[in-house]
Amino acid sequence: MGRKRSIGLLTVVAMAALAAPAGATDNGWDYNNEFAKRPDDPRYQVPVSTCVYTTRAPAAANIPIYGFGGRLLPFQIGTTRAPECGPNRLRISTLQRLTIGGRLTYMNRGGGDYSQAHAHVAGSELNPPPDLLPYSARMGNGRSAPGCNLHLTSKPVSMPGDMFYKSLSEGVGSGSSWANYGDPGKDDHGDSYNYILWNMPRRDTGASEAVLPGGGAIMANIGPNTHVYACDVSQQVLNSYSYQTNTINGYTRWAYVHLTNPDGENLWGWFLVSYKYGTGNEAEVGLYNWGS
What we know:
By secondary structure, the protein is mainly beta. It has one helix spanning 184-189, and strands at 37-38, 41-45, 49-53, 63-67, 71-77, 89-93, 98-100, 103-108, 119-122, 150-154, 194-197, 202-204, 209-211, 218-222, 227-230, 236-241, 248-260, 266-277, 283-284, 286-288. The longest helix is centred in the middle third of the chain and has 6 residues, at 184-189.
């Protein structure tokens, strides 16, 4: 299963019902979808990333990466560790470009066996930068939402390693961990951050839950104390399972939020607000700002 991740902070959450407005006007189900299907074979999704060569020498290990808001991360990535792509290439999202610190950037989709960082790389590092999918391929993920007024602040938190978003019957693997979204920067790279997501690995249908194929796609990484604003969209409260069992051992709570970067671009996506594990209290990942 890999190493266990400790709970970095455990706090009673007074804001659990406040992370998205009660009686929200929009259903969160409509903002958490599979991406578009391939027109030539609708059994599969359109790929939302592509392998792109870099402008650097093969096996370069010092490519700078950026977080949302213009933050230069204190470590680099290398093409020798790019999952699925092979030497001198990065796996780059084709869902968006984002201006960070005045430079046009693309999301490097990390992960894989080497835990490469999910972070933005400058378009000048890519040879050439990829074309983006049409907006319709997002299938409503990342679209704007009404009433984004409830102020939250990101507070990345290391989560227990035994919180998995797939049950045994759903084909759990060692990478199917909710801890990947708590404080992956600190847990894997020594720099604290968490994520805004296009969609989530599970989907709350109201009466039941299901794994969302292609879910968990990362839109941006955000550092501590990043301001986001919960929209008038119902929360998604999603089960957690013990490793290789069908036993529910907790849940994660998500709000649909809006944030704006210093370059004036707007993002809307899913933000991990809190989680509950076992008999413990619900622990904050998004801190509610009273009176804001």
